[in-house]
């Protein structure tokens, strides 16, 4: 009878962990569209492509930040209830919260503006993550194609860091190391990259994705 148990075990082991995703579509903004997905283990994917992206930007969120995202989603009943306020406010883009459980159907809520404080907290966290990943793309692009733009890209990342909005700062370490150790970059830029690298490698415990509104 033992062989009858193994198939069920295999299915259980292969089951994907629960996932949260957030997307925003806002023509005229930069970027006009983005989507990020994070599973319960902290695996994060980010894309600015409306079409299926075979090479999304990938990183790992700290456990504390991941747990906070899922806790907020739970408080929102995993988006099974409407979040749109219905108030006449300016259009700030079509936003979608989505939850995919380990088993069962997915649930989502689409809104422009929500007056729900928990939804606002979750939105802030997601927006901080998206800003971080967009800043990573800017830095990576500058490093490879526009060395004169690297300092501006570093300034954007530093601003997020100082405002406690930078998610998973360790993802920047390889790029910062490359900048800090290559003579093709200006001395001022190399120094800035080296300083940020040092700060990111020993961050205060409270510097992960901010919960501030």
Beta-strand share of residues: 15-25%
Radius of gyration: 19 Å
Strand and helix order: HEEEEHEEHHHH
> Would you identify the regions where 5 or more consecutive residues have pLDDT less than 50?
1-6, 8-12, 206-213
The shape, in one word, is: globular
Average pLDDT, all residues: 91
What is the terminal-to-terminal distance? Answer: 56 Å
Helix content: 40-55%
Number of H- or I-type helical stretches: 6
* Major sheet: arrangement of strands: 4-3-2-1-5-6
By helix and strand content, what is the structural category? alpha+beta
Secondary structure blueprint with pairings:
Elements: H1 6-14, E1 19-25, E2 33-39, E3 43-47, E4 57-60, H2 63-75, E5 94-100, E6 107-111, H3 117-145, H4 150-162, H5 173-181, H6 187-201
Antiparallel strand pairs: 1-2, 1-5, 2-3, 3-4, 5-6
Helix pairs in contact: 2-3, 3-4, 4-6, 5-6
What does this structure look like?
It contains 6 helices and 6 strands; from the N terminus they run H-E-E-E-E-H-E-E-H-H-H-H. The protein is of the alpha+beta class and 213 residues long. The protein has a 6-stranded antiparallel sheet with strand order 4-3-2-1-5-6, covered by helices on one side. The termini are far apart.
């Amino acid at each position: 009878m033992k062989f009858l148990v193994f198939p069920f075990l295999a299915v259980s082991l292969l089951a994907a962990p629960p996932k949260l995703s957030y997307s925003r579509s806002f023509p005229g903004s930069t970027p006009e569209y983005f989507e990020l997905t994070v599973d319960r283990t902290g695996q994060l994917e980010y894309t600015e492509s409306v079409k299926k992206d075979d090479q999304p930007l990938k990183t790992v969120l700290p456990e504390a930040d991941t747990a906070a995202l899922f806790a907020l989603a739970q408080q929102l009943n995993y988006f099974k209830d409407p979040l749109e306020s219905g108030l006449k406010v300016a259009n700030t883009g079509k936003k979608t919260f989505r939850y995919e459980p380990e088993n069962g159907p997915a649930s989502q809520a689409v809104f422009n503006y929500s007056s729900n404080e928990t939804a606002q907290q979750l939105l802030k966290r997601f927006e901080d993550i998206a800003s971080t990943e967009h800043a990573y793309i800017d830095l990576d692009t500058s490093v490879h194609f526009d060395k004169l733009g690297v300092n501006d890209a570093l300034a954007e990342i530093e601003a997020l860091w100082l405002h406690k909005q930078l998610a998973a700062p360790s993802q920047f370490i390889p790029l910062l190391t490359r900048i800090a150790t290559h003579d093709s970059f200006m001395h001022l830029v190399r120094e800035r990259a080296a300083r940020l690298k040092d700060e990111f490698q020993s961050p205060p415990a409270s510097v992960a994705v901010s919960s501030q509104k």
